[in-house]
Amino acid sequence: MDDQLQSSLHDFSNYPEPISGSFEALGLNKSWATVDERYGPYGFQQTEEGYQYSQVDWDKVKWGFLQNQCALDNSRRLPNHFNLTSIRRFQYRKDHLSARSSRNAAEISSVRDARKKYGKQAIILRAWSTYPYTDDDKQNLRSIVAEAALASHGKYSVFLLVDVKDLDAHVHSDDAGYASVLEKSVPEEFRDMTVLFDTTMLESWYPAVLEHSPFWQMMQPLQLFSQLYPEFDHYWQLEMDVRVTQHVGQILDAFDKFGEDQPRKQSHERASWSYMPRFHGTYADFTQRVNSAMPNGTGTWGPIPIGKEISPIGPEPPSPKPDDTEANWRWGVGEPADLLLLNTLMDVRRLEDWPFRHWHYGFTKDKDLPYWHSPPAQGRASWNLLNAIHHAQSRQDLRIASETTLPSFALWHGLKLVGLPLPIFQDPERNRDELNFVLNGGDIEQFPDGFANGPVNTRGASIGFFVRGRSFDWVSPMPDRTMAYWKGEKQPDDDMPKILVERDGKIYAPAMFLHPRKTNFYRSD
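^ that's the sequence the OP posted. Answer follows.
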């Protein structure tokens, strides 16, 4: 595309300070953008007089073809190029027997060396066949493809993974049914980057897991997708109600680099904190303070054992103990993270008010099972991690709740997990000292095990109202309020989020990951 996102570095006095996370730690620009600068190139107000971008007949655009052509043009740099637009469908499982009774059921035969990279990442946006796409949704999808897949010259590939609600369509056995659902469910411009599935496919592959709804098992389709498209190193799972006010490819690259730069040592502990520079200093200061709070710089070291169900696939630590040696601190540096989390990591055993606290099946340990939770169920997982979970569910019938799946299996297998210090705003903003207490439990030095332990860990917490109104959360009114003023659906008044700036009749937004942005009253059937 000729038009590009036009964000700018306007000096509007002070840039808003996130309540948690850091632009500096992630190496992100503190940019501003009007909604026209952000989404104008992708069709925002295209029919209005004075539209300054190229006029595009979006129904004639084929985003899968464009991505495929881009990857083909860069095939020397990306030698594992595959054709995205070729017909690749999920197939029903042929053997319906699990291997729980097998003595080596926990053994995973296929493990990739983390140092050997294909150089490509998939971005999977989850949708349903009954989802009504608004102009807002389409502009968002166009921006992700253009700025991540095309602008990166094929490093990223974007897919729609669509859950078909009409089981009578038989999309996995009837070509005509598949084509019909695709035509009815997905806007024409996105059809050649779409993969359809339904619950019968999940039931085929994970019969003894019993649960297959996205509420309980959000990761099952992603696990199968990694088997269908194994040519990627990593898989981003994002929801349709995510919005990025900054250049998508640049922010994902920043996440990638941050993950690579982090050592494995104490990455588990650091991920439990809502990093707040006002209290924790620079990220280097924060890292050192977490280490100093723990006796002899200990912490999670290698896989966390839970019993015979898991045979770890992660690498052996460089030494028996996590002492403060240079070699130990270098372990994992320069290695891509197997899991990048967009929110903090919480020990489920501490979540007394979480309703799914004891929802796990197939494990030898019962109440003492160590496992972790990080909502919402979005982030980036490696092929190794998704393959390990696929094995555990298809061969061992293990199951835990959606938001616990990725972090728990990563830690059980000794894979590299990194919590991203994503800048998060709040409106109306609460007192920062009180926020530090409810999110983290207090100062780092108060916790000799290195883990934050704030009283507000879930939306069901008794004082959960204190953290409402965040720019990125499981449930929050702030994203919709922010978008309404930014897009001109509401005129500036005292209720406008303080992070927005009005200048010369235009509303500017800082760089943000917004979730959830609800464009309609849709709920999947």
